[in-house]
């Protein structure tokens, strides 16, 4: 651009004037174009771009002013600087007309060559600057467009990248979801296992996981109750040594052992434990399976106990038999003696009553010890009660307890259909519980009365009673609050009463006493009802 030649138009109708101008202005930077008339000048201007025009005013045909006017009218050339050269028109009027058509300057002939030269140089450098500015504007425009394009590409790239990131995130989320789902499945499998599952790290006895079954087993209300505590807080102190020894050997594989656990509510349960070493997230851990075998253990014990009782029962039966025989002769001879010795009649009566008592008790023992068959008979329930009371009275007295009956001696005939021995077992159990509840002694009230088709028998004691929260547990197998209790008495009672189509209800107030009421269908009424209805 700097080396580009600049066009300068010289306009004069006289050849020699043009030559003179050319001589002054010749320069390696200029390209001088010559025109001999206004018309010719217009043609040049249409064809090329000029930095400056030097024009004679007086010309035949279109004069300088007219030519300038035309040039100014064209948009492309309206700003080209024009220098008028004149010899004649030096009047102000002339000069004014020149300026009004757009002249930039005036040179009066004869002109000073160096002034003209420097004026032209001035315009040329203006023109070049203008060109440069335009060029730069163009470059800036191009740059701006380029930048805009780049920005657009960048934006679309950014959007693409964003979409890509989104897609990848989705993929990851999905994979994660799958992982979570399978983890969730595994978790539920462990969580809902019927066996308690506890996970601990090797060398640690604080579990980092326990399932719901485990929480229930330990009678905890939530996992938090268990999770941050040492397992040894739940293991019975007497079993600590045994468990520690087993755990120390655990590294070499599966171990099965039994011990006792103390639940959060104080219950002691027997458990069978299987602990299996395994790797979890790079840590050596123990997978501990715990199964409650309390009932199993109890029923084992119970069976042993029953076994023992059967043997004892058989023995008792044999002994009772042996006692009854001599008792018969004792009674006979006492009566005989009584008839002969008048003075001590009172003593004789007492002796006979006592011998009869022994006889009743021994008979009861014999009945209870008899092998059990379910054969139902017509039973006078009041009679049964009376016999039982005779049997239990001695034991009751030992505890300072008196048994009081409320159905008087003229027993109405309450007949029920059932098995005498079983019903006796029920009454003995209930009376035994009542006596055991009355540590301070007192009365036990036993009553029997018919209600509709049934007979209701109630046992009212004034013992320690049963707290409301335990009342629902009473009668469940193995529920006992006694050190040497079996927790089976009431369960057996329930099942016997049920097999007689009866009901048994226990009411109790803590500290006040307990009432057990049993309802049994009356046999005769039953028969009558059947007769009437058929
Ligand atoms: P066991 O007598 O061996 O404990 P039971 O089934 O006969 O078993 O009784 C279960 C529990 O019910 C007893 O341990 C006791 O806590 C409670 N219970 C039963 N009868 C009474 C009673 N009359 N008064 C107070 N508590 C009783
Ligand atoms: Mg009992």
UniProtKB/TrEMBL annotation:
<keyword id="KW-0547">Nucleotide-binding</keyword>
<dbReference type="InterPro" id="IPR011006">
    <property type="entry name" value="CheY-like_superfamily"/>
</dbReference>
<dbReference type="Pfam" id="PF00072">
    <property type="entry name" value="Response_reg"/>
</dbReference>
<feature type="domain" description="Response regulatory">
    <location>
        <begin position="7"/>
        <end position="124"/>
    </location>
</feature>
<dbReference type="InterPro" id="IPR035965">
    <property type="entry name" value="PAS-like_dom_sf"/>
</dbReference>
<keyword id="KW-0749">Sporulation</keyword>
<keyword id="KW-0597">Phosphoprotein</keyword>
<dbReference type="InterPro" id="IPR036097">
    <property type="entry name" value="HisK_dim/P_sf"/>
</dbReference>
<dbReference type="GO" id="GO:0030435">
    <property type="term" value="P:sporulation resulting in formation of a cellular spore"/>
</dbReference>
<dbReference type="InterPro" id="IPR001789">
    <property type="entry name" value="Sig_transdc_resp-reg_receiver"/>
</dbReference>
<dbReference type="Pfam" id="PF00512">
    <property type="entry name" value="HisKA"/>
</dbReference>
<dbReference type="Pfam" id="PF13426">
    <property type="entry name" value="PAS_9"/>
</dbReference>
<dbReference type="InterPro" id="IPR003594">
    <property type="entry name" value="HATPase_dom"/>
</dbReference>
<dbReference type="GO" id="GO:0005524">
    <property type="term" value="F:ATP binding"/>
</dbReference>
<dbReference type="InterPro" id="IPR036890">
    <property type="entry name" value="HATPase_C_sf"/>
</dbReference>
<dbReference type="InterPro" id="IPR004358">
    <property type="entry name" value="Sig_transdc_His_kin-like_C"/>
</dbReference>
<dbReference type="GO" id="GO:0000155">
    <property type="term" value="F:phosphorelay sensor kinase activity"/>
</dbReference>
<dbReference type="InterPro" id="IPR003661">
    <property type="entry name" value="HisK_dim/P_dom"/>
</dbReference>
<keyword id="KW-0902">Two-component regulatory system</keyword>
<dbReference type="InterPro" id="IPR001610">
    <property type="entry name" value="PAC"/>
</dbReference>
<keyword id="KW-0175">Coiled coil</keyword>
<keyword id="KW-0067">ATP-binding</keyword>
<dbReference type="Pfam" id="PF02518">
    <property type="entry name" value="HATPase_c"/>
</dbReference>
<feature type="domain" description="PAS">
    <location>
        <begin position="182"/>
        <end position="247"/>
    </location>
</feature>
<keyword id="KW-0808">Transferase</keyword>
<feature type="coiled-coil region">
    <location>
        <begin position="147"/>
        <end position="192"/>
    </location>
</feature>
<feature type="domain" description="Histidine kinase">
    <location>
        <begin position="318"/>
        <end position="524"/>
    </location>
</feature>
<feature type="modified residue" description="4-aspartylphosphate">
    <location>
        <position position="56"/>
    </location>
</feature>
<protein>
    <recommendedName>
        <fullName>histidine kinase</fullName>
        <ecNumber>2.7.13.3</ecNumber>
    </recommendedName>
</protein>
<dbReference type="InterPro" id="IPR005467">
    <property type="entry name" value="His_kinase_dom"/>
</dbReference>
<dbReference type="InterPro" id="IPR000014">
    <property type="entry name" value="PAS"/>
</dbReference>
<keyword id="KW-0418">Kinase</keyword>
